């Protein structure tokens, strides 16, 4: 039993899912669902289709090179079963995937942080430039913070009569 | 030399046929539909393709013809001479040459027209060019029609030529017509040659095969040769002459002693002497046929002398190492009618051929290679002693042991037996893991994990995976430590919630401005600009101004007062307004004031606003005609209602909640054009 990768979107194909296509030159194409299969039949290049892993890796949206990828490598030589080694591997796999996941996340965060910084500076600039739309200049002169001015509310007549003002 | 396969030449179509075939092929195998609306390049391509296709096909067919017909220089001289005799070398070469030139001409035509087509500017012109190209090609083919017909004839005749192997052991039978050559042929081979009393029954070469001493011999029957000068000979005789000249074989010269063929011995002898030059280096035998009619001994003196002369010639062809019965080998008698001596003749001929060939081989250089390869040893028995078979004792012991081991194997317990013991085929399932070779035999029954969390376990298998994992975690620790510093920097420049609020407010205002501008912009040309006093939307009210100003953080009261003082009022004096302005100054910052000033302001502002405006609407002014305040209010209300704008927007109002048709027919009946009607 082996979990394969979809040729189009690179997601894992679990048993009982998807379609396998064998071409006349004996190359095997595996698809996780009919969406990928139909895209393949339309001769679409996964490197140009935005939602596939191939596109994301190619355009640097996702992490490409990392030492965690070295752990998971398809070996073509069969290995003799060894209980000790298998136990070790089973312990190690979740930790490796955790590290891989954190690294992926950090990669994306780093990529997006540039935008964040830009947005922040833009907001600040907008605020500084257009504060006059919400705050009169005279008010701004007195209260130089870039916040909404305190509203002048006319208190009702009855209220002022009854409630004694605290000094 | 490999013998040329005359039967393998493809059929040569006639000129007309060829044209038909190729044109119809062009029609079928190139695209046929074209419209004049297509791009000009496409039209050109279309027609060029047709022209090129036709040219290629012609080229192919003509090349096939030129290649498949044998070149007279490249085949055995016997065949080339035979072909020359039969079909005239020059004519043959000419025909093939014409086919070749036709091929080149067609290529040239196609090239020219393709070049012209590149500049064709309309469908019609391209089409004309194509028609012209194809037409010219077909004319070329039509012109070589006679050559093609000739080649077809040649081909048909060539296919029927007897397949003579020039290198095989051959016996050639020659002599005057009607001497009994074909009968002899029929006797020794399976060939069924025509035997008739008239001369020239055999008109061409015939081949038969005969066996002697486990070897196969070719026997060639020739048409009769007449004694004529060389130039006068006809085609049939030339065939036999050719055969005589080129085939290295034994020659059997047939002699009819009885003269029943119609020619005397003298005539036959004369023939013999005229063609004896062809018998050089060939084992020659004089065969005297029809001895049942005339015995050899009973010949006349002259005839016997002639025969002796011939025998003398024949003797010269014998190998030098003389044989005791040389005479017998050279001059033989037989009768095909009585079968007397036929076999003898054949045997002698075969022997002679074999001798000659062996001699030639012995003289050649290759013989040493052959001789080195074989040696037949014939040991002679030394004495008459008996020597039986002897097996050493060890061998017999070993054999006995082997037999025992086999018996043991039969007694070993098989899996099958195990199965039968434990309940049979359906009940017992053999443990396939029993014979696994593992480091530790306890692991044999383990279930090997294959998949975990969407990963293949086998992909991770590595003896030192834990060390690598440790390294990785260390690296990760360093990396995370390094990254925490970076994060703080970015988060420094954050906005406070109040600033955020201000920014949102700014954005809202901007959007509102843009929207308004858009509305104004789109309707500005078609909308009349209404002066302010007819302010339908109530844009220019003091409340609004007050709201906006207070939104900006300013105190609107002063501004409102100013505006109201400037507005039209009913007979109020200016002085009051000035005084009011002065009082208004105190009211700038309400926050800091005590309640007293508020009150003051409020009362004042109320009274001021009232006093400067018109009389209140509800106040009954005597003379208007109202009974009391209530009536006036009602009247005003009614008045307002009457001026209310009618809803002519054709939009459904409250009174319009009517469903005219609860079950329209088209929704509740009828079959669908496509699909199911399981819901309505």
Automatic annotation (TrEMBL), chain A:
Pfam annotation, one family: Ribosomal_L24e
Location within or outside the cell: Nucleus
SUPFAM superfamilies named among the record's database cross-references: Glucocorticoid receptor-like (DNA-binding domain) (SSF57716)
GO BP terms in the entry: ribosomal large subunit biogenesis
InterPro entries associated with the record: L24e/L24_sf, Ribosomal_eL24, Ribosomal_eL24-rel_N, Ribosomal_eL24_CS, TRASH_dom
Assigned GO CC terms: nucleolus; ribosome
Keyword Cytoplasm tagged: no
Domain TRASH: 6-44
GO molecular function: structural constituent of ribosome
Record key words, sorted: Nucleus, Ribonucleoprotein, Ribosomal protein, Ribosome biogenesis
Family note: Belongs to the eukaryotic ribosomal protein eL24 family.
Protein name, entry field: 60S ribosomal protein L24
Organism from which the protein derives: Rhynchospora pubera
From TrEMBL, chain B:
Pfam families: NOG1, NOG1_N, NOGCT
Segments of this protein annotated with the region Disordered: 382-418, 549-619, 638-680
Listed GO biological process terms: ribosome biogenesis
GO cellular component: nucleolus
Residues annotated as domain OBG-type G: 169-354
Subcellular localization, as worded in the UniProt entry: Nucleus, Nucleolus
Basic residues bias locations: 565-575, 597-613, 638-649
Keywords for the protein's UniProt record, in alphabetical order: GTP-binding, Nucleotide-binding, Nucleus, Ribosome biogenesis
Gene3D superfamilies per the UniProt record, alphabetical: 1.20.120.1190, P-loop containing nucleotide triphosphate hydrolases
MF (Gene Ontology): GTP binding
Biased segments, Basic and acidic residues type: 398-418
InterPro entries recorded: G_OBG, GTP-bd, NOG1, NOG1_N, NOG1_Rossman_fold_dom, NOG_C, P-loop_NTPase, Small_GTP-bd
NCBIfam families, per database record: small_GTP
General function of this protein: Involved in the biogenesis of the 60S ribosomal subunit.
Family classification: Belongs to the TRAFAC class OBG-HflX-like GTPase superfamily. OBG GTPase family. NOG subfamily.
Protein name: Nucleolar GTP-binding protein 1
UniProt source species: Rhynchospora pubera
């Amino acid at each position: 039993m082996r979990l394969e990768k979809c040729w189009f979107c690179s997601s894992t194909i679990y048993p009982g899912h998807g379609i396998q296509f064998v071409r006349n030159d004996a190359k095997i194409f595996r698809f996780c669902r009919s969406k990928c299969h139909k895209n393949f039949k339309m001769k679409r290049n996964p490197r140009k289709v935005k939602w596939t892993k191939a596109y994301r890796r190619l355009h640097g949206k996702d992490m490409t090179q990392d030492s965690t990828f070295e752990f998971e490598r398809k070996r073509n030589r069969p290995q003799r079963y060894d209980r000790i080694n298998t136990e070790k591997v089973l312990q190690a796999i979740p930790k490796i995937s955790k590290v891989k996941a954190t690294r992926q996340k950090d990669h994306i965060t780093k990529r997006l942080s540039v935008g964040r910084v830009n947005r922040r500076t833009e907001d600040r600039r907008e605020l500084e430039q257009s504060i006059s739309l919400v705050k009169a200049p005279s008010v701004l002169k007195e209260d130089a913070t870039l916040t909404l001015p305190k509203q002048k509310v006319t208190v009702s007549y009855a209220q002022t009569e009854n409630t004694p003002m605290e000094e | 030399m490999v013998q040329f396969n005359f039967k393998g030449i493809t059929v040569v179509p006639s000129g007309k046929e060829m044209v038909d075939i190729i044109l119809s092929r062009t029609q079928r195998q190139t695209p046929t539909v074209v419209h004049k609306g297509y791009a000009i390049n496409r039209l050109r391509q279309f027609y060029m393709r047709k022209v090129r296709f036709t040219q290629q096909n012609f080229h192919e067919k003509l090349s096939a013809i030129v290649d498949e017909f044998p070149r007279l220089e490249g085949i055995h001289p016997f065949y080339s001479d035979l072909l020359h005799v039969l079909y005239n070398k020059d004519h043959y070469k000419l025909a093939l040459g014409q086919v070749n030139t036709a091929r080149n001409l067609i290529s040239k035509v196609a090239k020219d027209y393709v070049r012209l087509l590149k500049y064709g500017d309309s469908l019609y012109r391209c089409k004309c060019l194509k028609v012209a190209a194809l037409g010219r090609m077909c004319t070329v083919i039509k012109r070589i029609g006679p050559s093609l017909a000739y080649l077809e004839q040649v081909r048909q005749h060539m296919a029927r030529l007897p397949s003579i192997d020039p290198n095989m052991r051959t016996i050639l039978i020659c002599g005057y017509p009607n001497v009994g050559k074909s009968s002899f042929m029929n006797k020794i081979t399976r060939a069924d040659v025509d035997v008739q009393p008239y001369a020239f029954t055999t008109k061409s070469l015939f081949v038969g095969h005969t066996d002697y001493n486990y070897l196969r011999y070719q026997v060639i029957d020739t048409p009769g040769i007449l004694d004529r000068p060389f130039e006068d000979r006809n085609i049939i005789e030339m065939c036999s002459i050719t055969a005589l000249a080129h085939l290295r074989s034994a020659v059997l010269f047939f002699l009819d002693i009885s003269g029943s063929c119609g020619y005397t011995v003298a005539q036959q002898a004369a023939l013999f002497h005229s063609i004896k030059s062809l018998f050089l280096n060939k084992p020659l035998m004089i065969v005297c046929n029809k001895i049942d009619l005339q015995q050899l001994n009973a010949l006349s003196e002259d005839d016997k002398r002639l025969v002796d002369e011939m025998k003398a010639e024949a003797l010269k062809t014998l190998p030098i190492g003389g044989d005791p019965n040389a005479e017998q080998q050279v001059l033989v008698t037989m009768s095909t009618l009585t079968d007397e001596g036929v076999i003898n003749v054949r045997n002698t001929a075969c022997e002679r051929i074999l001798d000659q060939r062996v001699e030639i081989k012995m003289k050649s250089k290759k013989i040493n290679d052959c001789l080195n390869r074989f040696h037949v040893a014939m040991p002679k028995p030394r004495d008459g002693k008996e020597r039986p078979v002897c097996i050493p004792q060890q061998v017999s012991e070993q054999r006995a042991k082997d037999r025992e081991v086999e018996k043991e194997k039969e007694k070993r317990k098989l899996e099958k037996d195990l199965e039968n013991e434990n309940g049979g085929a359906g009940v017992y399932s053999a443990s396939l893991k029993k014979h696994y070779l593992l480091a530790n035999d306890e692991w044999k029954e383990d279930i090997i994990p294959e998949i975990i969390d969407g990963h293949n376990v086998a992909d991770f298998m590595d003896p030192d995976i834990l060390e690598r994992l440790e390294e990785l975690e260390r690296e990760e620790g360093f990396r995370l430590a390094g990254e925490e510093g970076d994060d703080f920097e970015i988060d420094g420049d954050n906005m406070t919630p109040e600033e955020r609020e201000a920014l949102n407010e700014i954005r809202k205002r901007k959007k509102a401005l843009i929207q308004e501008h858009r509305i104004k912009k789109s309707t500005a040309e078609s909308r009349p600009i209404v002066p302010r006093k007819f302010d339908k939307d109530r844009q220019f009210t003091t409340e609004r101004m007050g709201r906006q100003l207070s939104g900006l953080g300013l105190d609107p009261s002063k501004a409102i007062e100013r505006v109201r003082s400037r507005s039209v009022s009913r007979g109020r004096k200016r002085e009051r307004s000035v005084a009011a302005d002065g009082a208004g100054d105190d009211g700038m910052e309400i926050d800091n004031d005590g309640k007293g000033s508020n009150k003051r302001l409020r009362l004042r502002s109320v009274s001021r606003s009232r006093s400067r405006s018109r009389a209140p609407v509800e106040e009954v002014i005597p003379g208007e005609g109202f009974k009391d305040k209530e009536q006036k209010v009602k009247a005003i209300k009614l008045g307002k209602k009457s001026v209310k704008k009618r809803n002519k927007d054709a939009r459904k109002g409250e009174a319009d909640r009517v469903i005219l048709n609860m079950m329209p027919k088209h929704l509740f009946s009828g079959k669908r054009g496509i699909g199911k009607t399981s819901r309505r």
